[in-house]
Structures are given as C-alpha cells and as structure tokens.
Amino acid sequence: MNHDYMREALELARQGLGQTSPNPAVGAIIVRDGEICGSGFHTYAGVKHAEIVALDAAGDKARGATMYVTLEPCCHQGRTGPCSKAIIDAGISRVVAAMEDPNPKVSGAGLRELAAAGVDVYLAHEFRAEAERLNESFVHFMRHQRPLVFLKSAVTLDGKIAAPEDNSGWITSEKARLHVQTIRHESDTILTGIGTVLGDDPLMTDRSGFARQRPLLRIVLDSQLRIPVTSRIVESSRNDLLVVTTSAASPARQKELEAHGVEVMMLDGRDGRTDLPALVKRLAERCYLSVMIEAGSKVNWAALESGIVDKIFFYYAPKILGGMQSLPVAGGTGRRRRVDAIRFRDVHLHQITADEFAVEAWMVKEQ
Question: Which of 120, 126, 142, 171 could crosslink 102 through cysteines, CB 3.0-4.6 Å?
Fold first, then answer.
C-alpha cells in the first residue's frame, strides 16, 4: 500500500467537510500503473458518493486498478445505489479502505461483498484514527444514535469567561476566534442560552465563508420566552432558529415568535428548566449529527450536569480575571466534593498562537 495515496484521499475528503451532513465526508482515489486516473469526494448536494465520482473520472482505466477510499464502500440502496456493486462492475482489482463504516447497514458488509467478488481488500488500520476523527460526528451518531455534543468556551487561565461589570472586548485573539468559525462550519447546530442572547445580542452564524450543506441550526434555551423579536438572532432567522421553552411560557409570545419564522419547541425539564436530554433526542430524530454549545456559565453547567456533553474544546488566553464575581466556565451548584468532579479523558492540547492554546477532551460518562 502506498501511504501517499491514502493521505491524498483524506485530503480530498476534507474538502467535503460541512457539505455532507447527514452523510460522512469521504474521499477516493483510483491508481493504475503508479498514476492517479480518477479521484473524487462526496458532497450531499452532488448526490454521488466519492467512489462513484472517482469511477466516473477513471472510466475504462478503473479496470485492474486500486481504489484508495477513506471509508468502507456502502453496500445498500440509499439515495444512490451501492458503491460496492459499482466498484465490482468497474473491474477494480483492489480496494484499500481507511476504516469500516460504522453505519449498521454496512459495518463490514461492503468489504465482504467486494472480497466475495474477487476484489483484494485491505483495511489500512494505520489511518483509522485519522479517518475516524475526520468524521467524528458521523461515527458518534452511528454508534450511539444521537448527535455528538461538544462544549466550546473561551476562558482565562483561571477559568473565567466573563467579568462582573464591563465585558466589552474579547478574551481570546482573532486567530482563536477564526478557529472557532471552522468548528462552527463543521457543526450542524449551535446552542446558547437566553442570558447570552439578552447580554450579547449575538448572531450565532457560520462566518467561515465556506459552503455548507444544511443551514446551521441556531438553538436558544429560553424557558419563559424572553427572547426579543428585535434581537439580531430573531431578525436574521430564515427557518434556522429553534427556541426551546417550557409550559410556563406565554402562548401569545410563542405565536409572536412563530410569526417571525421561529420554531418554538416545548420541553419541560426539572426546576422549570428545559429538558436538555429530550432536546438531544429530538435533534437525533432529525438526523443532526452534532451540537456545538456556545453559552454562558449556567447553561454550560446544566449541559455538563445533564450528561449530554461528550467533549469539550476550551480556548485559553494568557489572562487572569480573578475575584469571586467573575463568572466561571461552568457555574450552577457544581459538585460539592472533589471526588465527585466531572472527569475527562484523551486530553489533547492545540497550540493556537504563541501564547494561546486549546484543550480538547472527552467526558467520562457515568456507568
């Protein structure tokens, strides 16, 4: 196996990020006699899977060639026909895949079908981690049947996200904020609380400038429907704003928001708050693969305490606010004992600038 070809296939797959949901991002390259004769990547709007795009480009040169693909070819009828059959019919002699498809409809069956037809099949395990990370949300959704929920925050070195008085300006640098936009671009939904809307009047949009398959669904937790119809997030709504509330909210306010094109969803939780696990379940039913939380201290803690958070991505700036009134990244009641602290695993550090870094980690789920 030539590692360079698989690396090129992975780079092709990355070109589809943000354009494939609810499908995975996939890249494929066809090589014959040491030369690339076909390549392609998947976009949902383009319909065709990466393998078919590559086969179309290769034409007759596909016969006897090797295909490098970042994800196991599908073997079932969906929006398109099975890629495994197309590969066999094209006469591909060898398929090198970076990982098996976690979709229960495939899960190794595509590779077995290829092998049964005489195609030499090889799983490139050395690229599995990279391939899984490329489609992290898709893999998580297929394995757990719910979207990947990650909590993003910009914090000072002492874990603060807001000062008690003037909060003008930014905690992190422009480079860090641009990095956030790339994460938003790869997300299906973004969630915040009514406190953030009232305090900052944000748009919560994808400002990466890159093409995306489905609009970024903006979600606001608002148990009493206090969100102003004059807020920027409501005024900019184009069927991409969901406000989650409770039965305590005014029916008149709900009608007013719906008249402005806002979807209102009623999910009663404990203590008069919205039900976060129920929201995640509803989003799963709509095949949203990921939820990015960008909120304040109270919502951050509610999300962590409810267990919906799967991972965190915290950007740290070389600053300290100190004091007892500056808001921590996660407020609420917190855990009362050290032994009860919420724990994380697989911690990775990302250098953002010479003086800034980000911490990425997976939450340890209670058994």
Answer: 142
Whole-model pTM above 0.90? Answer: yes
Q: Measured between alpha carbons, how far is 34 from 325 in angstroms, rounded to an integer?
A: 64
Tokens of 323: 């004091």
Interval 218-251: pLDDT, tens: 999 999 999 999 999 999 999 999 999 999 999 9
Residues with active-site annotation: 51
For residue 180 the two structure tokens come to 């956030």
| Residue 348 CB neighbours (<10 A) | 10
Three-class HEC string of the chain: CCHHHHHHHHHHHHCCCCCCCCCCCCEEEEEECCEEEEEEECCCCCCCCHHHHHHHHHHHHHCCCEEEECCCCCCCCCCCCCHHHHHHHHCCCEEEECCCCCCCCCCCHHHHHHHHCCCEEEECHHHHHHHHHHCHHHHHHHHHCCCEEEEEEEEECCCEEECCCCCCCCCCCHHHHHHHHHHHHCCCEEEEEHHHHHHHCCCCCCCCCCCCCCCCEEEEECCCCCCCCCCHHHHCCCCCEEEEECCCCCHHHHHHHHHCCCEEEECECHHHCECHHHHHHHHHHCCCCEEEECCCHHHHHHHHHHCCCCEEEEEEECCCCCCCCCEECCCCCCCCCHHHCCCEEEEEEEECCCCCEEEEEEECCCC
pLDDT score recorded for residue 106? 86
Packed helices 83-90 and 50-58: angle between N→C axes, nearest 10 degrees: 20
Nearest in space to 199 (alpha carbons), one of 225, 175, 168, 171: 168
pLDDT tens digit sequence for 40-89? 999 988 889 999 999 999 999 999 999 999 999 988 777 888 899 999 99
Token code pair at residue 366: 């209670």
